[in-house]
Amino acid sequence: MAGLVTAFGSGAMTNSVPEIEEADCILVTGSNTSENHPLIGARILRAQRKGAKLVVVDPRHIHLAQFADIYARSRPGTDVAWVNGLMHIILTEGWEDREFIAARTDGFERLKEKVAEYSPERVEAITGIKQGQLREIARLYAGAERASIVYAMGITQHTTGTDNVLSLANLAMLTGNVGKRGTGVNPLRGQNNVQGACDVGGLPNVFPGYQQVTDPKVREKFEQAWEIKPEFKGLPQEPGLTLVEMMNACAEGTLKSMFILAENPVLSDPDVNHVREALQNLKFLVVQDIFLTETAELADVVLPGSSFAERDGTVTSTDRSVQRMRKAVEPPGGALPDWEIICQVAKRCGGNGFEYDSPEEVFAEMAHLTPIYGGINYSRLENEWLRWPCSSPEDLGTEFLHHDQFAKGRGLFTAVEYREPVELPDEQYPFMLTTGRQIFHYHTGTMTRRSPSLAREVEQGFIELSPYDALQLGVQDGEKVTVASRRGVIEIKVKVTSTVSRGLVFIPFHFAESAANVLTHRALDPVAKIPEFKVCAVSVSRGPQPDVRCD
Amino acid sequence: MNLPQEVLTEETRQIVSRLLRDNQVVGVIGLRTEHNHTGPHLFTSADDLKELTLEPRYPLATICQAILSSLSQGKLGVIVRGCDERALIEMAKLTNIEMERLVLIGLSCSEELARQCRCRRPYPSHIDVGEIVEGVSPLEDTQVRRLLEQNVEERLAFWQQEFARCIKCYGCRNICPVCICTECVLKEECWVERGQIPPELQFHLIRAYHIADKCVGCGACVAACPMEIPMTTFYTLVQEKLRELFDYEPGLDTKQKSPITTTLEETPLREL
Amino acid sequence: MNYKTVLTVCPYCGCGCGMYLPVLDGQLGQPIPDKTHPLSEGRLCIKGWAASEHVVSPDRLTQPLVRTGDDLKQATWDEALDLVASRLMTLRDRHGPDSLAFLCSAKCTNEENYLLQKFARTTVGTNNVDHCARL
């Protein structure tokens, strides 16, 4: 998100999902779209049947790769290099959109100098992508009337995540593929309201609507609206801690208490042994959830909330569409709607302004304070399909961003240098581990592993191992292996597959008893503070080990 | 001739209103447009009838079955197109659904819809709303024709390519009104490997075989397929063989038995 | 007999697919994909089709739980909420607002996330607010 904010001024998906069908070339990278955003994956394949060229660049031969016009297998963590390489070729061939660059962007000269250093030969050496293939990708992408880039956590979950995103933004601006239909730089958000949680201020540095907490004018507006008590001396001025920083602060003892709403960091965060110890170090932990998750088990108080079927409210999907959720059934037993629980806690803490009759009332207050949602209300959502920004009752919402100008005025090219991942394989840990999801499960498995028809498909975790490595290790499909990193050890079943290449292994992180995040490390992208889930070094050995920490 | 949609919708509303007023039915299953979206709805009073809509098509037969199972007394109304009625008849053959507890409001499809669906019988046995339009042979479909001209290897290659897109959502099975096994073999490890996408070819072959003599050509499977795999094309070709060999069509009469389940017991298979 | 269908959004990924939840005599059924939804157009993936299953899981939490030693024991809402409020405020007063942190949720609504960050910022007085956007 930070990358797109720097380049364009907004971190959201630039274009809408249906527009994907209008693209002539779709570059999918770091997104296992047909497994993790299946209905968007389906759109991509439909676009291809309508004539679009599909290019997939990914370390794994994902489901979508088998249909791609070009599939390039990149080494994990080398995205800046191959994107710079594409731009190198585009500039050498003169395929750039000079008019767009001149009219709408800054920083082109520095970019040009930088990408000049990324010859196809050098890029092949770094990334493993053949020069001919790179040229062909450059030709397809730059030659398309409308080219769209689709990416997800495979791009962002690196210590170079922000650089990766900046590079993709550079590529789109270089070829004029922003600000028009069927183009853009499109990060797919992984959860049904991750976009919304960001939009409404669920971040340490911004109030709702990405209004900076450091801006005195913004603070004044919110202080007035929220009727801050005088003894508070105004709203806090400094950005707070990000998630991984919070866990570190727990471990160090500077954080004393956490309130966790429906999340499961004990499985989802990097280096979960550390997370568990960190949370245990707290004086008081509150978890509000619908199941006794691995995190809730550590809590001092667990508050039972509502599932999606028991909810009224709104969620914002990946392409900025604001949609109504409607309650179908009552929460079970004594469980309550989450908004009511939060208001109850706030009121008992002496909080002001937590008297609401309905989620609609909450939305109205929020929209009033959040310019990008300013024109949205429940009655409009009954009749209209609205994507933010939608600032007034007359505003019909925004299908694609940056039409006449970028959200920040002019787009900014950033010259980006390739940097290696923090932890690369060595003699002791010779394999590169990458993590992710698969289609039958979701995030920490809290909901999907309790859904019989999903649990039946995949009951337990597995490690993808290439046929070559399986042979070398002398292990067979279904056999148990021990996987170790500098952080921890797990025991897990082998799945031999050519989805991964020699030296690369993949573990989905849904499964607590063979948790991939025991192995991952806490190294962060310096700007976005995203952990490097996609690359760390592990060893794989046959059979169990006596010291295996396995429940 | 096609009557305007508004006229047909109004006529349907009046019929539903009459059935409810006269207490002939407890409720009527149809479609309602609310929140600017359209979905299945049980109409139980005249209050929301102004929101009654006729399109798009939803698997109403399956919903009827669920509601009937919990309806202790009275009858249930349902707005049926030709395919909905055929689905109900097939369900009645295979399950305990009682046709006499249903009041069917027959709706004929438009010529356009009939062509779109390549539907042989775009109308129910009794038409209350709309006029009978001529059926379209499924063989007129260009894809069907192309496949018929191809040899076995070419056809297999075509289907392998189509089925490779499958992400195993089970949508085709879930939405299918005649997929009624309580224990689905598609979930059994010995037939189809679990947790694999795309699933092996037998996933689709088993389904095709299971519904070969039941498919009513409603097209719900294709409409529900994220990957737009043209399954009805596949089933159509099987159905056409059934017509050719046994002069049999599913969904016409609850008393008519499928030749696939009866032939071995009663009459020997015709020389092929 | 009572039957209704309720239009809502799939709880899983960010696609935001549309579905009707059928409720027959209070029992939640399998979702019916919304054919008029501009994004999902009457289609769902396997998770969407299974979206009702976790809702009716016997593992659902139905009462607040409060820790007593190594165990979590059932408590009333008043007990649980009062305990949360008093402990949070005590720690805040003793160690300052920034000794507390709040995780919002990508699984909750805009309204719920708005309320939690409002609580953290106005009542507790900290910007230690984040969620799993980065995970």
What string, H for helix and E for strand, traces the elements of chain C in order? EEEEHEEHEHE
- Could you please say which CATH topology of the largest domain in chain C applies here? N-terminal domain of TfIIb
First and last CA, distance of chain A? 36 Å
Give the terminus-to-terminus CA distance of chain C.
Answer: 44 Å
Give the amount of beta strand of chain A, in percent: 15-25%
**Number of helices, where a helix is a run of at least 4 consecutive DSSP H or I residues of chain A:** 20
Give the strand line-up of the largest sheet of chain A. Answer: 17-19-18-21-16-20
> What share of residues are in beta strands of chain C?
15-25%
Quickly give the CATH architecture of the largest domain in chain C.
Single Sheet
Query: How many strands of chain A?
Result: 21
Low-pLDDT residue intervals, each spanning 5 or more residues of chain C:
none
Principal-axes shape call of chain A: globular
CATH architecture of the largest domain in chain A: 3-Layer(aba) Sandwich
Largest sheet of chain C: 4 strands, antiparallel
Tally of separate domains of chain A: 3
